[in-house]
Amino acid sequence: MSGDVGLAGKAAVLFGGTGGIGAATASALARAGARIALVGGRDLARAEAVAARLPGDGHRGYVADIASSEEIGALAARVAKDFGRADILVNGAGVTRAIPHADLDALDDALIDLLMVHNVRAPIAAVRAFREMLAASGDGLVVNISSIAATTAVGSNVAYCAAKAAMDTMGAALARALAPAIRVVSVSPGAVDTDFVPGRDRQASERIAASTPLRRLASPEDVADAVLACATHLRFTTGSVVQVDGGRHL
Hints:
Number of helices: 8
Strand content: 5-15%
GO molecular function, one term: oxidoreductase activity, acting on the CH-OH group of donors, NAD or NADP as acceptor
Low-confidence stretches: none
Pfam families: adh_short_C2
Number of strands: 7
Helix content: 40-55%
Strand order of the largest sheet: 3-2-1-4-5-6-7
Order of helices and strands: EHEHEHEHEHHEHHE
Domain Ketoreductase: 10-195
Family: Belongs to the short-chain dehydrogenases/reductases (SDR) family.
Shape: globular
Largest sheet: 7 strands, parallel
Distance between the termini: 29 Å
Organism: Rhizorhabdus wittichii
């Protein structure tokens, strides 16, 4: 390791910043010195409250509908005005529903479309909107919060697995297209100890933990540490998938 690995003077934009992983990631990046533009979905008061609790100064809460490229573009303009820069973009807004893989009738078109918007179209729209600022940084970084479901094909539903696989492939393509100005990395958790998956009860979580080589679920902080590492230590990494799953993919 060489040089300064802190994030002082940098600005990070976090979509999905009010969720468990998002809030933990915002805190980790803020502790390293970054100013945070924390983006929630609809509840501005909640986004502002999470931002206000972050260590350090200069953080702000925002909301944007990630299904709207126009709102993402407007958000980028507000961040440019408020922060004057964007060095790190974290695409972490997520949604899913637990549906048995064989129950294709329950996997309705609306949920399939929603998952593809959240995991493919919205991240592309965010990169498009923030590309100029990320490239101007001289050390631009995009981190997409993926899932080991992309490669194991074991996840909350079939469409979720497909959407995360698309996210990883999109990330690799963008890493090649945007280099050398911007790096793109996927951080790929296994099961995380949050309430992200509706219908996954404590008993199900305990079964998952018991079947994981490291014998526990990932914490939001585990995922946040991986994002921080991408920004501070893994500076020669792009187009890669960083797994944070306790060996669950094995």
